[in-house]
Specification:
Length: 544
C-alpha cells in the first residue's frame, strides 16, 4: 500500500484543528459552560493538536493549528452578538470582554492545541529518525558483514577489488560497519543548539500550565450544609436549556422564595448566601442564575433566543420545578433591578403560580430612567471636575444607545455618581464582585459571572427600551411589595413611586430603606429579612 504523499498529509494535518474548530463553534460558541465542557475542550484540543503535529511533522503546526481552529470558530459564531464574541474594543469593558471571552476560551482550547501540536510534531520526527536508523547501511545485509565476491579488475588481471563496507557520506546509518561506533554525521554525534533545549523547556512549561488549568477546571462548586435542612447546587431545564439553581433552607417544608437577580446574564449566588442567610430560617430560598449567568452560561446561545419572553419562560419553568419538587401550589417571588421586569411580566401572565411579589430596585421604564441618570451624571461630572467625562457624555447625547460600549460611561460611573455614606454599614459595598470569592462557583463560573453580564446586557437591554410598566402593567393579581434604598438613582425611584401610585393589587406596600442604594437587599439585609418575614405572615394563609 502506497504511503500518502506529503501534500496529502499536510491537508489532513490542517483538517484536524479546522474540523474541531467548527465543532466548538457550534457546541460552545462563547466558551465552555461548566467543568465537564472545560475538561472535554482541553482533552479534545490536545488530541487535535497531536494529530495535526504528527501528520504535519513540522514545528509550524504549533502556529497553524491554533490559527486554523480560531478561524473556524469565528466563522461559525459570526451570527452571535455580545462583547465577548464581537470585534475587540479599546475600552475598560472591551479589555475585560477580550480576556473573559477569547482569552478564557483560548486558555481552554488554543493553548492545548499548541502544546499537542508541539508534541505531535516531535513524536513524528522521532519516529522517522528511528525508522531511518534501522535501515541497513550499504554493504550490510541481515545484520552481518558482507563478504565481497571476487571481481575482475579494470585491466582484467584477475585482481580482487573489495567493495567498501559502508558509504562514508551516508549519515543515516545507525553504526559504522568498519568500527562498530556511531556513523559520522549521525544525531548522537552532534550537540543540540541551546535554542532547541529552550524550546523544549518552553513547551514543557506550557504543558504544565495546561495540566494546571485542567485540574482547576475540574474542581467542583459546593455550598456549605444547612444542618437538618437543604443546601444544594442543582440545575433546572427550561426547554433545552439548563439554568443553575442554589437551594438553601433550614426546613425543607417551608414556603419557597425564588430570587431573580438583576441585569441580563447576571448572577447573585454569592451575595444571596453572604447577606440573606436570615431568610433561610423562614423559606426554602431558591436563587437562579439568569440565562447567560455564571451557572447558566451554556443557556445563552444563540443570541436570537435571548428575549424578554425567553426570560419569562425560564422564570416560569423554575417556578414549576419548585412547585413540583416541594409540593407547593404557589411560591413567593423576589426580583431585583432588571430581573424585576421579568418578575412582573411572569406574575402578570401566571398569577396562579405566585403567593406574593417583592420587587427590589424595581425597574419601570428603562429609557426614562437612563435619560434621567444621564443628566444627573453629566451634572456630577461637571460639579466634581471630571470635564473629560462630561464632554464624552455630551458628545454621546442622551440614551438609549445601541450597545454595551456606548452605555459604558454611564455604567462605569454609576457607583461614583450615586454613592452615599455607609458609615457603620459596609455590607454589600463590593457590589457584584462579592460573587467571585465564593465556593458556590467554580473558577470558570466566576469568570462567567462577569462575561455573562456583559453579553447579556448587550443583547437584551436594547430590546427593553419600549417597555413601560406605567402603561402596560396597571394591575397584578397578587400582593405586591416594593423596596428601594433611599439613595437609589433619583430618576428610578421617582418612576417606581409613579407606577406604585397607579398599580392595583389585592395588597400593596412600598418600603424605602435609609442607608441603602440600588442594591438595598444586600446593603441592609436585616430590614429586608424583617420585611419578608412580615410578608410571609400577611400572605401565607390569605388564599390570595
Amino acid at each position: 500500500m502506497a504511503k500518502p504523499s506529503r501534500p496529502a498529509l499536510l491537508l489532513l494535518a490542517a483538517l484536524s484543528p479546522t474540523v474541531w474548530g467548527l465543532v466548538v463553534g457550534w457546541w460552545t460558541p462563547r466558551g465552555p459552560g461548566g467543568n465537564h465542557d472545560a475538561v472535554v475542550s482541553v482533552l479534545a484540543s490536545l488530541a487535535a493538536g497531536l494529530l495535526a503535529g504528527w501528520l504535519g511533522r513540522s514545528r509550524w503546526a504549533m502556529l497553524a493549528a491554533p490559527v486554523l481552529f480560531a478561524l473556524a470558530v469565528e466563522l461559525v459564531r459570526m451570527p452571535l452578538r455580545g462583547p465577548t464574541v464581537d470585534a475587540p474594543h479599546l475600552s475598560g469593558f472591551g479589555v475585560a470582554a477580550l480576556l473573559l471571552g477569547r482569552g478564557l476560551h483560548g486558555l481552554l482550547t488554543l493553548l492545548p492545541l499548541l502544546v499537542g501540536a508541539a508534541y505531535g510534531a516531535g513524536l513524528a520526527r522521532r519516529a522517522a529518525r528511528r525508522a531511518t536508523a534501522v535501515l541497513p547501511a550499504p554493504g550490510v545485509a541481515d545484520g552481518s558483514r558482507h563478504t565481497p565476491e571476487p571481481a575482475t579488475g579494470a585491466a582484467g588481471d584477475g585482481r580482487h577489488t573489495p567493495e567498501p563496507a559502508a558509504s562514508t557520506g551516508d549519515a543515516r546509518a545507525a553504526t559504522d560497519v568498519r568500527t562498530g561506533g556511531p556513523a559520522a554525521g549521525s544525531a548522537p554525534g552532534r550537540r543540540r543548539p541551546w535554542w532547541t533545549w529552550a524550546g523544549r523547556a518552553g513547551v514543557g512549561l506550557l504543558a504544565a500550565v495546561v495540566a494546571l488549568v485542567t485540574v482547576a477546571a475540574a474542581v467542583p462548586a459546593r455550598t456549605a450544609p444547612v444542618p437538618g435542612g437543604i443546601a444544594e447546587l442543582t440545575t433546572v431545564h427550561s426547554g433545552d436549556r439548563e439554568l443553575g439553581l442554589m437551594l438553601r433552607g433550614a426546613d425543607r417544608n417551608a414556603p419557597v422564595l425564588l430570587f431573580l437577580p438583576g441585569g441580563p446574564g447576571s448572577s447573585e449566588v454569592g451575595s444571596v448566601r453572604r447577606h440573606l442567610a436570615g431568610l433561610e430560617r423562614h423559606f426554602v430560598l431558591a436563587t437562579v442564575d439568569r440565562r447567560g449567568g455564571a451557572r447558566s452560561w451554556a443557556a445563552f446561545a444563540p443570541s436570537s433566543s435571548f428575549t424578554l419572553d425567553s426570560e419569562v419562560t425560564d422564570a416560569i419553568a423554575v417556578v414549576e420545578h419548585l412547585r413540583q419538587r416541594f409540593r407547593q401550589d404557589r411560591v413567593y417571588l423576589m426580583a431585583h433591578s432588571g430581573g424585576s421586569l421579568v418578575g412582573v411580566t411572569a406574575v402578570r401572565r401566571r398569577p396562579e403560580l405566585f403567593r406574593a411579589y417583592v420587587g427590589v430596585g424595581q425597574a419601570v421604564d428603562l429609557r426614562a430612567a437612563d435619560i434621567s441618570q444621564y443628566a444627573d451624571t453629566v451634572a456630577w461630572a461637571r460639579r466634581t471636575g471630571r470635564a473629560d467625562l462630561a464632554d464624552q457624555l455630551t458628545d454621546l447625547g442622551p440614551p438609549p444607545y445601541p450597545d454595551m460600549y456606548t452605555y459604558e460611561p454611564l455604567l462605569a460611573n454609576e457607583a461614583g455618581a450615586f454613592d452615599f455614606d455607609r458609615t457603620g454599614n459596609a455590607e454589600g459595598r463590593d457590589g457584584v464582585a462579592e460573587n467571585l470569592n465564593v465556593p458556590e462557583y467554580t473558577l470558570l463560573e466566576k469568570a462567567h459571572a462577569l462575561s455573562g453580564s456583559l453579553d447579556g446586557f448587550d443583547v437584551l437591554y436594547p430590546q427593553l427600551q419600549h417597555l413601560d410598566l406605567r402603561r402596560e402593567v396597571r394591575r397584578l393579581d397578587v400582593p405586591v411589595y416594593l423596596m428601594d434604598g433611599a439613595h437609589e438613582v433619583p430618576g428610578r425611584l421617582a418612576l417606581t413611586r409613579e407606577w406604585y401610585a397607579r398599580l392595583e393589587a389585592p395588597r400593596k406596600e412600598h418600603v424605602v430603606l435609609d442607608g441603602a442604594g440600588h442594591r438595598s437587599l444586600f446593603q441592609r439585609p436585616g430590614p429586608v429579612t424583617d420585611l419578608l418575614t412580615r410578608v410571609l405572615t400577611e400572605t401565607r394563609g390569605s388564599g390570595v
